[in-house]
TrEMBL record:
Family: Belongs to the glycosyl hydrolase 32 family.
An MF annotation (GO) of this entry: hydrolase activity
SMART domains per UniProt: Glyco_32 (SM00640)
Region annotation Disordered: where it falls in the sequence: 636-660
Pfam families (UniProt xref): Glyco_hydro_32C, Glyco_hydro_32N
PROSITE patterns: GLYCOSYL_HYDROL_F32 (PS00609), TAT (PS51318)
InterPro entries linked: ConA-like_dom_sf, Glyco_hydro_32, Glyco_hydro_32_AS, Glyco_hydro_32_C, Glyco_hydro_32_N, Glyco_hydro_beta-prop_sf, TAT_signal
Location of the Glycosyl hydrolase family 32 N-terminal domain: 12-252, 425-495
Keyword Signal: yes
Protein's recorded name: Glycoside hydrolase family 32 protein
Glycosyl hydrolase family 32 C-terminal domain: residues covered: 526-651
Keywords: Glycosidase, Hydrolase, Signal
């Protein structure tokens, strides 16, 4: 590792060559952790889906094995799980030599007898997972769907049967099935749609965990991966905590998206409603030649300015000299505590360049609130607390500041209510960064530890990441636990303990240090060598304080805390090579209150990734980055003065690449 390409991670699994996506078939068996994965044996983009294979005894160092399940003319081998069929319930082994059984999705090709169908199939191994036979009676579960995939199976001890979860992706549903022999499957129930539904549901996982370490008080956790529509944009993983009674999963904390009952000010169901829409096509500030826009998205011969698309109001500004448009709502009285908007768009805020397309709340000619959507692919609720404006008369205005570049905002609903809307940031997420997808857990781990792996990537740009001759990496394996946070059980996640076996001697330790105005420089990293930074960031009077890693003259990845927004963020907008895809540049954030004035961070930095474990693992943020190999700087900076850091330890991870 490390030698063939500067972006090759040192402590994260990558295949020697070619494309990889989801982890599959995670199982600990005979002292070996198996990692199978979605793999293209013939290229560095998605296709020819097969199961690759790697093994490890410590979850940190991996040995790639020969291809486990190759695609055929009839089927591509999509994601799935593996169980150890100890009592040979399947009959595919013998009592003395019980099999490992893989349940995977057959994605049938046009040259098969089931073109376009996705169904669940079996393969088995009698040599501990190194070579695999397909079961002759495949598929074992076919519901006639083209979107039925990603089986994950476990032995349900209380009932004495196997349970499978699988998704019907486009319906945003998880289906549960039971079986006595892994071959015949009986439908139990389904779950969904719920919480985030701005994309398809994929790769489900259901498991039980003690709450606060008490084995007599357990909950079931259902992980549902989602693409796109995650909290940070694109692919991500949400989870639900609840009960599984052997038939049905019941979450104990379910939110209705959107505001509580309220007064709908606009829904755009029939066009603009009574909003005034003006497209200033001649740039004079008044009505352009088209005056009030037609009720269609694009104006003749022009880029879209203000338009109506589906049941949404759209404002896009394109190019420096393009005309601008705006839309204004009728006046209304602020007689409730919240104004809620369903908004999307906002490419420019992501890149930090150019102008802004915004939705503004205007009172007496002044903009008092302003919103932009986070993603062009999905809309999310924004809530403004307007209790300080009670009784005032207001308008909403959708506008572009026309200062160049690309601005885009979508507005779907406006609702006045007494409480805030539930949006993506209110749901439970495994990770709040951009690159943590297809998360799924190991079966049969020692001490029943719940260990997950995930593909460290995002379908938005996964095919374009600048690495060669491989493409795709796994995030660090994590151990999951349930801890009571703010009155209900939630997942806390930390790197598995085995990471400590890679610890080098600390190169920097400090109890407490003020951050000078010029910044606090820590010793630079060794080129190509991963490291871990543990520290507490204390903003004090600073508006923002941030740990900067992979820092060079013109680049850094920033893990920071913003005091006004009360959020922990991961900003890779100037992290090095960001230009290979327009959606790559990003700043992601998780809402988080300070504890005793600080936030404790554990940050693992590899050549092309940054993983943040915050507040003991209560929130995590994972991002890919592609910095210059020479960008080895590490520093802390605070703006506005007054920040400090506490209990800082920096140490290298893994072997010294120079061999010293
Ligand atoms: C998730 C996914 C799965 C599917 C696999 C195909 O990333 O789309 O739903 O089984 O990848 O490679």
């Amino acid at each position: 590792a490390g030698a063939d390409h500067p972006h090759r991670p040192a402590i994260h699994f990558t295949p020697a060559q070619n494309w990889m996506n989801d982890p599959n078939g995670l199982i600990y068996h005979d002292g070996v952790y198996h990692l199978y994965f979605q793999y293209n044996p013939e290229g560095d983009r998605w296709g020819n889906m097969s199961w690759g294979h790697a093994t490890s005894t410590d979850l940190m160092t991996w040995e790639e094995q020969p291809l486990a399940l190759p695609y055929t003319d009839e089927e591509h081998v999509f994601s799935g799980g593996i169980v150890f069929d100890e009592h040979n319930t399947s009959g595919l082994g013998t009592a003395e030599d019980p099999p490992l059984v893989a349940l995977y999705t057959s994605a049938y090709t046009d040259s098969s007898e089931r073109p376009g169908i996705q169904a669940q199939s079996l393969a088995y191994s009698l040599d501990g997972g190194y070579t695999w036979e397909r079961y002759e009676g495949n598929p074992v579960l076919d519901i006639g769907s083209g979107e039925f995939r990603d089986p994950k199976v476990f032995w349900y001890e209380e009932g004495g049967y196997w349970v499978m979860s699988a998704v019907v992706a486009t319906e945003r549903k998880v289906h549960f099935y039971r079986s006595d022999d892994l071959v015949e499957w009986e439908f139990l129930s389904d779950f969904g749609p719920a919480h985030a539904v701005g994309g398809v549901w994929e790769v489900p996982d259901l498991f039980e965990l003690p709450v606060d370490g008490d084995p007599s008080d357990t909950r079931w956790v259902l992980v549902v991966n989602l693409n796109p529509g995650s909290v940070a944009g694109g692919s991500g993983a949400q989870y639900f905590v609840g009960d599984f009674d052997g038939t049905r999963f019941t979450p104990e904390h379910l939110l209705e998206p959107g505001p509580p009952d309220g007064e709908v000010l606009a829904d755009f169901e029939d066009g603009y409603g009574d909003w005034e829409v003006v497209n200033d096509l001649d740039g004079t500030g008044g009505d352009g030649p088209f005056g009030t826009a037609p009720a269609s998205g694009t104006l003749p011969g022009q880029q879209e300015v203000v338009g109506y698309e589906g049941d949404r109001l759209v404002n896009t500004f394109v190019g420096g000299d393009a005309p601008r448009g705006h839309a204004t709502s009728p006046e209304f009285t602020i007689d409730r505590d919240f104004v809620n908007l369903l908004v999307g768009g906002g490419n420019k805020p992501r890149t930090g360049e150019g102008g802004h397309a915004t939705v503004d709340l205007v009172v007496d000619g002044e903009v008092v609130r302003s919103a932009t959507g986070g993603d062009t692919e999905h809309l999310d609720w924004v809530s403004w607390d307007v209790s300080d404006l009670a009784g005032r008369t207001a308008r909403l205005r959708v506008e572009d500041d026309a200062t160049g570049g690309w601005g885009h905002v979508l507005l779907d609903h406006v609702v006045l209510s007494d409480g805030p809307a539930a949006g993506l940031a209110d749901y439970d997420w495994l990770d709040w960064g951009r690159d943590y997808y297809a998360a799924v857990s190991y079966n049969d781990t020692p001490d029943d530890a719940r260990v997950t792996m995930a593909w460290m990537n995002n379908w938005q740009y996964a095919q374009d990441t600048p690495t060669s001759p491989w493409r795709g990496a796994m995030a660090l394996p994590r151990q999951l636990e349930l801890e009571t946070v703010d009155g209900r059980p939630r997942l806390v996640q930390n790197p598995v303990d085995q990471l400590e076996s890679l610890y080098g001697e600390p190169v920097y330790e400090r109890d407490r240090t003020q951050v000078p105005a010029s910044g606090l420089d820590l010793p630079p990293a060794e080129p190509g060598r991963p490291y871990q930074v543990e520290l507490t960031l204390r903003p004090g009077g600073a508006g923002e304080i941030g740990l900067r890693v992979h820092e060079g003259a013109d680049q850094a990845t920033v893990v920071g805390y913003n005091t006004a927004a009360q959020e922990l963020f991961l900003d890779r907008s100037a992290s090095g090579d960001t230009g290979f895809h327009h959606a790559f540049t990003s700043r992601s954030a998780v809402p988080m209150a300070l504890e005793d004035g600080g936030v404790r961070l554990r940050v693992v930095v590899d050549t092309s990734s940054v993983e943040v474990f915050a507040a003991g693992g209560r929130a995590t943020l994972t991002d890919l980055v592609f910095p210059d190999p020479g960008a080895t700087g590490i520093s802390v900076r605070a703006d506005g003065g007054g920040g400090s850091v506490e209990d800082v330890t920096v140490r290298p991870l893994g072997p010294d690449p120079s061999g010293a």
